[in-house]
What we know:
alpha+beta; five-stranded antiparallel sheet; 22% strand
Amino acid sequence: MLYSFDGEVNVISCxxxxxxxxxxxxxxxxxxxxxxxxxxxxxxxxxxxxxxKPINNVKVLKAVDSSxxxxxxxxxxxxxxxxxxxxxxxxxxxxxxxxxxxxxxxxTNVVINYEHVHKERIAEDFVWVQxxxxxxxxxxxxxxxxxxxxHCIQFYPNExxxxxxxxxxxxxxASKEVSxxxxxxxxxxxxxxVRPSTAALQVFTNQRxxxxxxxxxxxxxxxEVTYTVAFLHKGCSKTFKIATAxxxxxxxxxxxxxxxxxxxxxxxxxxxxxLINTRYPDLMCYHLLLSDKNSRIHGRCNDCPMQxxxxxxxxxxxxxxxxxxGISQGKxxxxxxxxxxxxxxxxxxxxxxxxxxxxxxxxxxVVEWICENLSSCQTFDPVQEFxxxxxxxxxxxxxxxxxxxxxxxxxxxxxxxxxxxxxTTDLIDMPIMKIGTFKGFxxxxxxxxxxxxxxxxxxxxxxxRDWYDLLSELDTKEKRxxxxxxNILENAKKVLINVDxxxxxxxxxLIQEDDYLQKxxxxxxxxxxxxxxxxxxxxxxxxxxxxxxxxxxxxQLDLICQILEVVWRKYRIDSxxxxxxxxxxxSEYFAFHVMCRVSEAASKMCMPLPPGFQTLHLVLGVxxxxxxxLLHYIDSGALLLTEAFIVKLLKELDDSEKNEKLKYSIIIRxxxxxxxxxxxLWDHAISNNFIAMKxxxxxxxxxxxxxxxxQSLTDRSPLYIHxxxxxxxxxxxxxxxxxxxxxxxxxxxxxxxxxEIALKRTSVLLGLQQC
Length: 771
């Protein structure tokens, strides 16, 4: 619908009812001596109620000398049709009235039933008031001595209205001037007026039950802008001080607050643009502060102040236009690529991963940036941030409170200063709720308040020391055969099956294998997360928690695979990467480097890795690294030897001098549980040594002699455990050989064979011959 007015009728505000049968408007007569061709008012300000059809019926609601604004209430979508319309009238004389208007149908026209138009005063003595059209809420502030109290009225479709809450505020507002927000358009003579004593203040809500108050006091210090955001649902506030080149105090009136749901933008044209993370406000590294040319809003006149009227919509004061605003993913990606500051990188990455709905192409670009900047971020690990934040985004919304129990970032602390910005945190009074039952937004808000009463902590990954302690406890026959251990492995199996179902389109050649170390880690982390959620999510059943945990770790493994997929597709690495007898390319070396950083990130937080990850990592290491470097990676723990890799190494490579050196160097580094399974695959002296040592251990274990303490032998150096002085060894083995098992069941071993092996080994140790 389009409404037009005479050029001399200076409309301040107007509103139409839901049925579009009534139009309310307020206007200003600029000069009492000038008469409009449409209206000839006596008073300066008039509020009218107009029947849209026929258009000639007009009712005067107010004729006063102070500005008034009008706003119809809109019932919810599920409300029943009614012949009553409800209209708010806000006056700068510090009162708000509600008009109840009843209409009747006369032929094809809808007319006002003047006998049933009555009003009631619902608020008064305020100094600031704001209408929230999307939530049908009225916020207003009443001064109390040196402080103020924020009140809220919620209008319901069928229950009229209720006073919902009041919150004491540690701010002071001038009682002589009244601010009316989101009630219309300032008259021409009021536009551009500078009121240095007036504070900028606005209240915002988000879909998750957050309630925020933004307050910028009158400018006192030259070249410094101060503003406070009170997180009313959290009981805290943050005060920011931004150093600028601002010299004209009048320009502070151009400061704008723009609601973007998870963010609120504080914008001072040509000086700074501050995206305040209202969902996770804890640390400064989650807020994005832009300055100079980066602080300009693309496509608009940046010298014009704006007022946020609805979520992601602003009113441009200079033109009266309502504009839709949002965060440009392209510009944010440019900032991520061009920035050299960790605080800006982390804030931009955080915004991408937790707040924006990324398309596949943008998501791929973010992962590419992460892979290319693994070593340039000094204060955070981009791989950890990608995995943890993405997990929180995908799993955190499955049930109430879950997003507060799962980690959302890899950076628990931040003590780095941001140039030109300071932030202080204070505690504030919690809101006082005035209602007993909660619906819609207020149900979520009350849930936030209840959560603040309990000191519930987020899930934390195990530290490496704790992980090793748990492994040592499990690494016993009693534990491994226990019900507890079987449950751990069963949990891990469910996750791995779930991950396998997603592999149909993957090109990264991850070999299916059993890695008991990773299975133990995965199972233990699942048990820990289940215990954590069961402790806090009392309203959630066991089966639901099991599903959340399964989804959490399945998604975690999938995210690691996703990083590899991006690298493989970008650099077009083919399946030939699994061949050990070919040198690696520069693309494969880059892939190896990315896998090193992924493995390091997972190791620091004890995250499990997908099956086949470590084997592929080892294969790339053999192809890309000199032997000395490869062994250094293995000895330092950056590469972990797996059974699948050893089998591939022994079967695929021949026994050339170079390959024999490679095999020998790796075989001697194998843990015993893998050596027992693969020694028979290589016909070499090192394999014979292992066979001899294994057989001797069995014979010695059968002796039960008082002179020989097996426990004492195992505590000594490996050289002396497996190869005792030769004569003593031969004598001992000859004594017990007849009592041994059938030697044909033990790789055709006898004392003579062991004597031969021992002699060779002794010669090697003495330097008389090479192995």
